[in-house]
Design a protein that fits this description.
The chain is of the alpha+beta class and 306 residues long. The chain contains eleven helices and ten strands. The protein is 30% helix and 22% strand. The strands form three sheets. Strands 2-5-4-3-1-6 form a six-stranded mixed beta sheet. The protein is elongated.
Length: 306
């Protein structure tokens, strides 16, 4: 198994270590991805800068994307490692002053983050001082195997105090063996995955103004829907609201349906009715990312105001 050790901003780490979040944005000023072709669930460890120089935690890789600074803040909020937007800009430093709001940053989305107490930090073997971004390790090699075992031991010690009479839960056991994790996606992960799956274009209109696009759940999260990419559509903000209200739907055959209730309630809607029964403008290229027909049917049958 491969895993990444990323050089980590100490302030970012200290802020997030004090919070119990389900996901974090490991951002970088450069829009160049730190690695390519990583599988979902690959471990990603946090290696602090001087004077610490130790691995102090980690998470599990979901996806990588580039986002404008304001949108990164809107999506992740404090999961960026700051309590407010001005503090986020302070962390960005030269990017904020040189490129301002239009600057795009690289966002590595990680789920299930964990943070080790200082007495259980791990020194990475074979770490050259000129490494500025990170290093990929493999558990099939000596240094990777030793490092993963040391991190697993540190985590096991940290979690021993919460073991129950039933034994180690799945949540705890996953950090030990060198296996990939099927990560539990959060709201921010869901939005980034949907945005990129639809190539940053509204599924209905084709609109590509990124700040106006939102990730809509097909089966609402409050109704046992999931943050799965197949349970989502990328929609322009007005269509997102109409979809959630049941005034717009999409059939399992990927055809758009516009409810007559729009005209009945608001005496308007001509711009919407032109799209009735048209096919979706944008769908993901990869079949495994396309909307689930069963979930589309659920929305059409249970939510749409026909």
């Amino acid at each position: 198994m491969k895993f990444w050790v990323g050089v980590t901003d100490n302030r970012w780490y200290e802020f997030l270590a004090q919070r119990r979040l389900d996901e974090v944005n490991f951002w970088q000023p450069s829009a160049t991805p730190p690695f390519k072709g990583a599988p979902v669930g690959m471990p990603f460890l946090f290696k602090l800068k001087r004077p610490n120089n130790h691995i102090a935690g980690g998470g599990f890789f979901v996806t990588y994307s580039t986002l404008p600074v304001p949108l990164a803040w809107e999506i992740f909020g404090e999961k960026n490692g700051a309590a407010a937007l001005d503090e986020f800009f302070a962390l960005l430093g030269p990017l904020a002053s040189g490129r301002g709001l239009s600057g795009a940053i690289g966002c590595t989305v990680l789920t299930n983050p964990f943070f080790l107490p200082a007495e259980r930090w791990v020194e990475p073997p074979g770490w050259a001082p000129n490494i500025v971004r990170g290093k990929m390790y493999e558990t099939s090699l000596d240094d990777g195997s030793a490092l993963w075992a040391a991190v697993a031991r540190s985590l096991s010690q940290e979690r021993a105090q919460v073991m129950t009479p039933e034994g180690i839960s799945e949540e705890e056991a996953k950090y030990g063996p060198a296996v990939l994790v099927s990560p539990r996606l959060g709201q921010a992960s869901f939005r980034v995955l949907i945005t990129d799956a639809y190539k940053r274009r509204c599924a209905i209109t084709g609109e590509s103004t990124l700040i106006a696009l939102e990730a809509a759940h097909i089966v609402p999260y409050a109704h046992e829907g999931t943050h799965d990419v197949r349970n989502g559509l990328l929609l322009r903000a007005d269509f997102h609201r109409l979809y959630d209200a049941g005034l717009v739907s999409v059939t399992p055959g990927l055809r758009i349906k516009i409810s007559p209730r729009i005209h009945e309630a608001y005496f308007n809607g001509k711009a919407y009715y032109r799209m009735n029964d048209a096919s979706l403008t944008q769908i993901p290229d990869r079949p495994e990312q396309r909307p689930d027909p069963d979930r589309l049917n659920w929305h059409y049958k249970n939510c749409f105001q026909a």
